[in-house]
Design goal:
Layout lengths: L1 E7 L6 E2 L10 E7 L9 E2 L1 H4 L2 E2 L6 E2 L7 E5 L8 E2 L28 E3 L17 E12 L3 E11 L5 E13 L5 E11 L4 E3 L6 E5 L6 H4 L2 E4 L5 H5 L2 E2 L2 E7 L5 E8 L9 E5 L3 E5 L6 E3 L5 E11 L4 H13 L10
Parallel strand pairs: 2-3, 4-10
Antiparallel strand pairs: 1-3, 1-7, 5-6, 8-9, 9-15, 10-11, 11-12, 12-13, 13-23, 14-22, 15-21, 16-18, 17-20, 18-19, 19-23, 20-21
């Protein structure tokens, strides 16, 4: 069951729609997974319990609460939540589903996603791994004039459906001038019942698969980082505050996404994993493993600056500084 959480009623042109292809002005949809274990009830917050049914499979949606809505759709072939598409100022998606030249072994490259290659030895990164991130409940949805968010809880399930991690994630959209915007991802990861080790790997925690035309190889785009590096050879495995991937998205428009690493992240500045084929990600445990203990959640924050053109480094630095100075999302105690 795939969960699509829509935040409506905006006066802007931000459009972030679900994997099922909905694409409308004034609509922001955060896409996640709402599968659950047999017989297990997906919890409903006070917000979701007030939403009306649209019918058609199991689909809860929305004329209440300023037009906010949430809907879950059948999608049994997804192993983790993701956000798709990331629409730029031109209205075209700056991200894609899957690797353009290797779709089978990179089927997990779903636009923007969080996962990890080694959680107590279990692979949550690839679709052939045994790990699965299972959506549990929507805690809260807020809709504002310039900012909106959805907060959700998930379980990281290993082999034999063992719960390894409990996740709480807040995904926010913040509007900017010129139809640009920020996607903010705050996440708390906590070991469920015993210590959990995130192994040493370049894969995880966040990945971004860019549109084919933005890729260096296929479209003539460019990768740049905060330290002055350009393209894969100078950016891969290098620590940075941010990495930008920009390139042509239409015949007349250049747009891109800058991936921000926040100073609260324990490995800041993160080592970035990038490829000229249209991929970038920030590595949490590139240098060494990290042990998570029950009762001590790991707080992380990432940002994606969705922009027009190919901004100068000083402009991106200014955006990153604003991002870095803003307090991370607070996660109130669950009731």
């Amino acid at each position: 069951m795939e969960m699509a959480m829509a935040i409506r009623g905006w006066r802007s042109r931000v459009k972030v729609s679900s994997v099922v292809g909905m694409k409308r002005d004034g609509l922001a949809e955060i896409v996640g997974q709402a599968s659950r274990l047999p017989g297990e009830r997906v919890g409903a917050s006070a917000t979701t319990s007030r939403l009306a049914s649209l019918g058609g499979g199991r689909r809860d949606a929305c004329p209440t609460l300023s037009g906010m809505c949430t809907a879950d759709r059948a999608a049994t072939n997804q192993n983790r939540p993701f956000v798709y598409p990331i629409l730029g100022p031109s209205g075209r998606s700056l991200t894609r589903m899957g690797h353009p030249r290797d779709p089978e072994s990179h089927s997990h490259h779903n636009s923007v996603w969080l996962s990890h290659h080694d959680v107590n030895g279990t692979d949550f990164w690839g679709d052939n791994g045994k790990g699965r991130i299972l959506h549990q409940r929507i805690e809260q949805i807020e809709d504002g004039e310039a900012r909106a968010f959805v907060r959700a809880s998930s379980l990281w399930l290993g082999t034999n459906q063992t719960v390894l991690l409990r996740e709480r994630r807040q995904t926010s959209v913040q509007l900017l001038p010129r139809d640009e915007w920020l996607l903010l991802i705050d996440v708390h990861l906590e070991a469920a019942s015993a210590e959990v080790t995130l192994g040493k790997t370049p894969f995880g925690l966040i990945g971004v698969r860019m549109a084919k035309t933005i890729g260096v190889n296929d479209g003539g785009g460019a990768i740049r980082n905060s330290e002055g590096g350009v393209n894969e050879q100078e950016v891969i495995w290098k620590p940075a505050r941010w990495v930008d991937y920009s390139g042509p998205i239409t015949a007349n428009a250049v747009e891109g996404v800058t991936l921000f690493d926040h100073p609260i992240n324990p490995n800041h500045p993160a080592v970035f994993h990038v490829r000229n084929d249209g991929w970038m990600g920030a590595s949490l445990t590139f240098a060494e493993p990290r042990v998570l203990a029950p009762g001590k959640p790991l707080a992380l924050r990432y940002g994606l600056f969705v922009h027009s053109g190919m901004p100068a480094a000083k402009e991106i630095d200014a955006r990153w500084k604003e991002f870095a100075e803003e307090a991370p999302a607070a996660f109130p105690a669950l009731k």
